[in-house]
Write the structure tokens for this entry.
Amino acid sequence: MTLNWASERVLLTGGAGFLGSAVRPELERSGCATIVVPRSADYDLRDRQRVDELHRRVKPTLTIHLAARVGGIGANREHPGDFFHDNMLMGLHTVDAAREFGVRKIVCVGTICSYPKFTPIPFKEQDLWNGYPEETNAPYGLAKKMLLVQLQAYREQYGLNGVYLLPVNLYGPGDNFDPRSSHVIPALIRKCVEAREAHERQVVVWGTGRPTREFLYVADAARGVRLAAERYDGPEPVNLGAGFEISIRELVELIAELTRYRGNIIWDDTKPDGQPRRSLDTSRAEALFDFRATTPFEVGLRETIDWYESTLVASPVGARVDEMARG
């Protein structure tokens, strides 16, 4: 598919969320003049009738589906049914509406949580079906993986040009810092900053610190989404990552250093660790659409911490979170 951003009408679901807020300016810089960002208050993507109304109004030529109900281990453990139900319906309706209303291409963003719990390192896309996901976020991971099944089935039967991306854990300015639903980096930043300001002698962190993770700066991820929309039209899933691995223990020590927290770190090993290791093979993205992450991890962390301290700590209200709009 030849893509001319100036003539595209882009439906960007989740465009007001974390990833979407980085994707939108990335598209604008590429010359895209028409980007429609539906808000959940107006168009609940779990409601097929509202999804159809949205497509009749927008008439998109390209859909980038980022909308999801997301959260950390705690939120996934407390609401597994909601995470499965909401993500299944949003994906099901959005992809089927793309077929029905003649959208020329749809790019869907999945999740690293879809990989099996014990996937060999680095995760290769061909390993996606070789086991069951880690239990604490399996309902969410499986719901998002069904997007890939739907896209491939619709490509075969209807000729829908559907692309599926698997980004590793994202971080960066504008992330969700709500302790009830945030992921590991914003949760740790908030915990350390608040402990520093309160002169607390210790902070408690879930798990053992032994698991490893890979993290992708949100601006890099947005560029990956844009490049895939421009240059990739294939049926196979594609990892988006940064190509490194860090233990949670090392991550906590680095965040404590960068936030200037000098107290003790206490590990609560009665709480779950999550998946033992996460690190991606990113060679397919580089080969297919020339994507490579460029933001050094410590640089990205510093920018995230600076944004949190200048934007949320300084605000008496803080950021309002829209569950349905997050990418």
About this structure: The CA atoms of residues 312 and 319 lie 7 Å apart. The domain at 5-171+214-244+277-295+320-325 is CATH 3.40.50.720 (Rossmann fold). Residues 316-327 have pLDDT under 50 and may be disordered.
